[in-house]
């Protein structure tokens, strides 16, 4: 086993054991992984390094929330202070720079959308709900309200777009 592979394996094991999620920065790559692995996406928008904590009303994600993210989601952090992330923030309709979007296991549907911060108990509740492998997403939920999105049936959802992000193009509010 190469030294690089051994170091990567050890690091992955340490991260998995710590209860901390691996934060990815490439939404499009993670969306493809989500589709292949049938694992939901958690897209957190914040400002600056470690900005994922800004989603928590209390100022820092709890150990329970971090564990839910690590165990159940592919986690994407979008630093909205970076110019190259502004287009993604706009596509997600989170121009103010802090928010959360949970995608379903298909990588094609937006299960939950929220702009701003959430209390730890609400974060945990939504993360637990949308981690359920038996849940079929038929609408996009918002904290305190439900936004109804009429999802087309079949496999055609977002496929005509050339693979640029069906979760964004088909289901984001505009």
Give a structural overview.
- A seven-stranded mixed sheet has the order 1-3-2-4-5-6-7.
- The N terminus and C terminus are likely disordered.
- It contains six helices and seven strands.
- Helices cover 35% and strands 18% of the residues.
- It has one domain: 3-Layer(aba) Sandwich (Glutaredoxin).
- The N and C termini lie far apart (49 Å).
The helix/strand class is alpha/beta
As laid out across the biggest beta sheet, the strand order is 1-3-2-4-5-6-7
Oligomer state equals: single chain
Q: Please give the number of β-strands.
A: 7
Instruction: Provide a count of the helices.
Output: 6
Q: How much is the average pLDDT?
A: 80
Task: Give me the strand/helix succession.
Answer: HEHEHEHEEHEEH
CATH level 3 topology: Glutaredoxin
Low-pLDDT residue spans:
1-17, 155-166, 168-174
Instruction: Give the percentage of residues in beta strands.
Output: 15-25%
What would you say the CATH architecture is? 3-Layer(aba) Sandwich
CATH homologous superfamily annotation: Glutaredoxin
3D shape = globular
What is the CA-CA span between the terminal residues? 49 Å
Number of domains: 1
Short description:
This protein has helices at residues 3-18, 27-37, 63-72, 86-91, 120-131, 166-171; strands at residues 23-24, 41-46, 74-79, 99-103, 110-115, 140-142, 145-147. With 174 residues, it is α/β, with parallel strands linked by helices.
């Amino acid at each position: 086993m190469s030294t690089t592979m051994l170091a990567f394996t050890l690091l992955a094991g340490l991260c998995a054991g710590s209860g901390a999620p691996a934060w990815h920065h490439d939404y499009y790559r993670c969306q493809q992984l989500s589709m292949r692995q049938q694992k939901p996406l958690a897209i957190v928008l914040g400002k600056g390094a470690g900005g994922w904590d800004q989603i928590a009303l209390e100022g820092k994600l709890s150990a329970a929330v971090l564990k839910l993210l690590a165990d159940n989601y592919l986690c994407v952090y979008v630093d909205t202070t970076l110019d190259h992330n502004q287009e993604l923030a706009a596509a997600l309709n989170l121009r103010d720079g802090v928010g959360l979007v949970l995608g379903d296991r298909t990588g094609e549907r937006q299960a939950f959308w929220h702009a701003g911060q959430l209390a730890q108990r609400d974060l945990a509740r939504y993360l637990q709900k949308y981690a359920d492998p038996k849940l079929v997403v038929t609408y996009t939920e918002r904290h305190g309200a439900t936004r109804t999105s009429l999802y087309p049936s079949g496999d055609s959802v977002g496929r005509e777009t050339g693979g640029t992000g069906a979760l964004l193009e088909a289901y984001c509010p505009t």
